[in-house]
Amino acid sequence: MLSKTSYKTPVGILYLIADEQILLAAGFTSFSELTKRLSPLDASRKSETVGQIPVISDLIADYFNGETSALNSIKVRQSGPAFSQSVWKEMRKVPVGKTWSYAELAKRAGSASAVRAVGSACANNLVAPIIPCHRIVKSGGALGNYAYGEEVKEWLLRHEGALQ
């Protein structure tokens, strides 16, 4: 059975869906929006709403309370093509307080010319902000797009010390 919970943050409610200690989805939309994007197998599973998900809820709280490296300890799983998987894996290596460009991430994921594919992987990331697509910016330094809005992206980057 999947567990669902939400956490009130300074930038809105963060919805979480987990399979025991593995986070399958996180985002600032709704449970129904996140569930639609789960793998067909996970989307078909029964779920229950809980007050908190052991370990994961505590790490989310720690992050929003200032321990910005806490998200690194959350185990995640999401389905997607092989290149997206490599992009998400590399994205988790972006240090807190830093940003990488889409081009830098493409290079680190194994295909320097795949900048558009990196953008697609960011857009399809189902575990934000734990897989920190908010730390990926345009080559000129502009923030770029973020599924939950530029204000949320900017707040997260300020919270982590990447923006003054």
From the structure above, extract its key features:
164 residues, alpha/beta, Double Stranded RNA Binding Domain, 2 domains, two-stranded parallel ribbon, 7 helices, 19% strand
Describe the structure in your own words.
There is one protein chain. The protein has 164 residues and is of the alpha/beta class. The protein folds into 2 domains: 2-73, Double Stranded RNA Binding Domain (2-Layer Sandwich); 82-160, Orthogonal Bundle (Arc Repressor Mutant, subunit A), CATH 1.10.10. The chain contains 7 helices and 7 strands. The strands form 2 sheets. It has a 5-stranded mixed β-sheet. Strands 6-7 form a two-stranded parallel sheet. Strand 1 and strand 2 (12-19) form a beta hairpin. The longest helix has 10 residues, at 82-91. The protein starts with a strand and ends in a 5-residue tail after the last helix.
The largest beta-sheet arranges its strands as 4-1-2-3-5
CATH topology of the largest domain: Arc Repressor Mutant, subunit A
Given the structure, what is the number of helices?
7
Under CATH at level 1, the class of the largest domain stands as Mainly Alpha
Separation of termini? 42 Å
How are the elements arranged and paired?
Elements: E1 2-9, E2 12-19, E3 22-27, H1 31-37, H2 40-43, E4 47-49, H3 56-64, E5 75-76, H4 82-91, E6 100-101, H5 102-108, H6 115-123, E7 136-137, H7 150-159
Parallel strand pairs: 1-4, 3-5, 6-7
Antiparallel strand pairs: 1-2, 2-3
Helix pairs in contact: 4-6, 5-6
